[in-house]
């Protein structure tokens, strides 16, 4: 049969944006009865093999592998102090999931700074690597719409790579399927 492509997905976003919640939704262990928000296809490929948490150095990394997908999740709250560590993973990433807390208006500027730094990195700039944005926590009353989040982050300025933004509620798994379908199409 066909060999599945090894795909590294890097999940970025400020602390508290919802990265862990989204990643947990991708893990088939959480959907033993196939009742989760993700298609069987995705559940099939996201078979958890390993998990590793490294909290001691000021930011966390979580990794889990599947037959064809390898997820690496970073908490960017460590900011520039730890950038030299996580930027090491840029080169080997085939897709990016960037999670935003849509209700966190105060830190939208910080999010934009981190996004711009990421987009301008030598290993990312000019590379046609798909970037999926989740405008997460859409269920909260003061959450901005995905259009508003997109405007605040100036996503229309991204010309060198395909990108897509989805409103999501990671707790309930809403919006994740749409985003991942898009990502899968881009990777295929
Ligand atoms: P760090 O581990 O600090 O990097 O955070 P994280 O980005 O992994 O966020 P995490 O998934 O831990 O979520 C932070 C908090 O937000 C938790 O209390 C989640 O339950 C909550 N949360 C995540 N997604 C949503 C959402 O869509 N809606 C609401 N209301 N809460 C959410």
List the helices and strands and how they pair.
Blueprint lengths: L6 E7 L5 H8 L13 H6 L15 E5 L3 E6 L5 H7 L8 E7 L6 H12 L11 E6 L9 H7 L10 E5 L8 H12 L1
The protein binds guanosine-5'-triphosphate.
Q: Which sheet architecture does the biggest sheet show?
A: 6 strands, mixed
Helix content: 25-40%
Instruction: Just give the CATH class.
Output: Alpha Beta
Ligands present = guanosine-5'-triphosphate
| Spatial ordering of strands, largest sheet | 2-3-1-4-5-6
Task: Determine the strand fraction and express it as a percent band.
Answer: 15-25%
What would the CATH topology be? Rossmann fold
Number of strands: 6
The rounded Rg comes to: 16 Å
CATH architecture: 3-Layer(aba) Sandwich
Mean of residue pLDDT values: 77
Dominant shape? globular
What does this structure look like?
A six-stranded mixed β-sheet has the order 2-3-1-4-5-6, sandwiched between helices. The chain is built from six helices and six strands; from the N terminus they run βααββαβαβαβα. 28% of the residues lie in helices and 19% in strands. The chain is of the alpha/beta class and 188 residues long. It has one domain: P-loop containing nucleotide triphosphate hydrolases (Rossmann fold, 3-Layer(aba) Sandwich). Helix 4 links the parallel strand 4 and strand 5. Guanosine-5'-triphosphate binds next to helix 1.
């Amino acid at each position: 049969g066909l060999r599945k492509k090894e795909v590294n997905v890097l999940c970025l976003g400020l602390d508290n944006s919802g990265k862990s919640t989204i990643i947990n939704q991708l893990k088939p262990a959480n959907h033993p009865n196939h009742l989760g928000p993700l298609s069987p296809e995705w559940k099939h490929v996201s078979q958890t093999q390993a998990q590793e948490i490294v909290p001691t150095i000021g930011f966390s990394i979580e990794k889990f592998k599947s037959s064809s997908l390898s997820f690496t999740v970073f908490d960017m709250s460590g900011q520039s102090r730890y950038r030299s560590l996580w930027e090491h993973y840029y080169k080997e990433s085939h897709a990016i999931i960037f999670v935003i807390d849509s209700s966190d208006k105060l830190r939208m500027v910080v999010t934009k700074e981190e996004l711009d730094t990421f987009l301008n990195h030598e290993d990312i700039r000019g590379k046609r690597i798909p970037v999926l944005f989740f405008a997460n926590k859409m269920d909260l009353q003061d959450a901005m719409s995905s259009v508003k989040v997109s405007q605040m982050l100036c996503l229309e300025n991204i010309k060198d790579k395909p990108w897509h933004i989805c409103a999501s509620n990671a707790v309930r798994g809403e919006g994740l399927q749409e985003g991942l379908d898009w990502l899968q199409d881009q990777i295929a």
